[in-house]
Design goal:
Strand order of the largest sheet: 6-9-10-3-11-12
């Protein structure tokens, strides 16, 4: 195979951060080359350099044997390089056909006037979708389509520019298993047509299934490249985190105390049915179940985000009235959302502003915010939770996913809760960050904090929970002690 794209010794610096340091990458024609690394390792920065969003400070990019400088994303398109982001950038109120050709519509002249050639657009779009093996209504509005179909439109849009190099950034993050299979079939067709692809994913099983080679980056630096048939999962993890990860679930055994939370006969019309549960001091209680089983809805009802029809909540042996989240926090109950960017953090604000937002009244007096106390407290959480940030005023949006998740937890801990509800605490973070978050959860439990951990990741539930409830159709369908539970038992009850 011939090399279509090569990056040599690429350096990219931002104020206070060296995002890329002597980065290397080689992409062969018709190859699917995976790039993996922890959150914050430099993967996204590398892709933005390739597509012209960022200009490298040093280094060289070689495209089809010729040195090139990519000025901007449109320049990248013109040179046959396109990127498909995890979150699509389509116009929802335009049709599929209009989205594919927007900005580069074929033109024809009628009586000396230039107009869009819709017939040519339609002809080219049909050819592209035939190549992808997809049947789609070209006149349908994008707003009516699902995530998987939108991704296919993004791929078609890239091919309309005659892209020879495709970058796929976490393409399966929001897809169902069936949609993932359909995407992989499309990728196989593209490879057979000679399209070269860079594939970014946290999911190692995907990398081993579809990638020809894999490059690992860590802390902005190139670590290694290997053929997927010649490397193991453990070796990849070791390269990614710089150490051997033998234990992803560093659970500390804790002597559990009395019940701190009891929920009795909680019902919510058409959502939750006769829920009874208890949580002990220092316990990590796992809540498992399939999507739609009512796990998040249960957390919302307990925390006052939604109103229950009947039921009693008891904290430290006393019935409490929780009609709002403010009531929950007053009673020592704090929730960390699975959607940290939408419901957990204000990503345009700093680490410090996010962390202290719920407790500003505690950090203020008649003269305003006590800034020294605020900074000291914030730095304490940054140190204790090992949040990787240059400083406390660093913008959340510039942090890796794993560190954003740690800030979400720190923000909850600042309220000084008795009970912490973590909803999908490691969703969207890499294997190294998962181990750190698990260690943090275990440490908090060992200090007496009681934790409810909702997770779709069964190994996570089995590795971390002292006890597990399994939910199905809005009710608790089973309960297991941590040392008795297996994936088979959980799935048997959940299904």
């Amino acid at each position: 195979m011939s090399c279509v794209l090569e990056l040599k010794d690429v350096v990219k610096e931002f104020p206070g951060v060296k995002a890329l340091d002597n980065m290397q990458l080689q992409l062969e024609k018709g190859e699917l080359h995976a790039v993996c690394g922890e959150n914050g390792a430099g993967k996204s920065t590398l892709m933005k350099v390739i597509t012209g969003v960022y200009k490298p400070d040093q280094g060289e990019m070689i495209l089809k044997g010729e040195p090139v400088k990519i000025k901007n994303p449109n320049d990248a398109y013109s040179k046959g390089i396109a990127i498909i982001y995890q979150e699509t950038s389509l116009f929802p109120e335009l049709t599929v056909l209009e989205n594919i050709f927007i900005g580069h519509e074929p033109i024809k002249c009628i009586a000396g006037i230039k107009v869009i050639d819709y017939a040519e657009m339609r002809k080219k779009a049909i050819q592209i979708f035939n190549k992808l093996g997809i049947d789609i209504d070209l006149d349908g509005l994008v707003s009516k389509l699902g995530v998987a179909t939108k991704q296919m439109i993004e791929i078609a849009k890239a091919l309309s520019y005659e892209a020879e190099i495709l970058i796929l950034d976490e393409p399966t993050a929001a897809l169902t298993n069936r949609e993932v299979r359909a995407l992989f079939e499309t990728i196989a067709r593209l490879k057979s047509d000679g399209v070269s692809m860079v594939y970014i994913s946290h999911r190692l099983e995907e990398i081993f299934e579809i990638a020809d080679r894999v490059t690992v980056v860590r802390d902005g630096q190139y670590v290694a490249t290997a053929h997927t048939k010649e490397v193991t999962s453990n070796q990849l993890i070791s390269w990614m985190v710089g150490r051997s990860v033998d234990e992803l679930y560093p659970k500390v055994q804790v002597d559990l105390g009395d019940n701190v939370l009891e929920v009795k006969k909680l019902n919510q019309y058409h959502v939750l049915r006769d829920i009874n549960l208890h949580l002990r001091k220092g316990e990590i209680l796992g809540i498992a179940g399939l999507g739609g089983s009512g796990r998040t809805e249960l957390a919302f009802a307990i925390c006052g985000f939604s109103q229950k029809d009947t039921g009693e909540i008891i904290i430290d042996g006393k019935p409490v009235c929780i009609n709002s989240y403010r009531d929950a926090m007053r009673n020592g109950l704090v929730y960390v959302s699975e959607d940290r960017k939408d419901k957990g953090l204000v990503v345009a604000m700093s680490v410090k502003e996010n962390l202290t937002m719920p407790i500003l009244s505690r950090l203020s007096n008649l003269f305003g915010i006590k800034f020294k106390e605020e900074e000291s407290m914030c730095q304490g959480y940054i140190d204790s939770l090992s949040i990787k940030t240059p400083h406390s005023d660093f913008t959340i949006n510039n942090l890796s996913g794993g560190n954003q998740q740690k800030v979400s937890v720190a923000k909850a801990l600042a309220v000084e809760p008795k009970i912490l509800i973590l909803d999908e605490p490691t969703r969207g973070v890499d294997v190294g960050a998962k181990a750190e978050i698990h260690r943090m959860i275990s440490t908090l439990a060992s200090k007496g904090l009681s934790i409810i951990m909702i997770s779709s990741d069964l190994p996570e539930i089995l590795g971390m929970a002292d006890r597990v409830y399994v939910m199905k159709e809005g009710k608790i369908a089973g309960e297991f002690m941590g040392d008795q539970v297996t994936q088979e038992k959980v799935l048997t009850v959940a299904l």
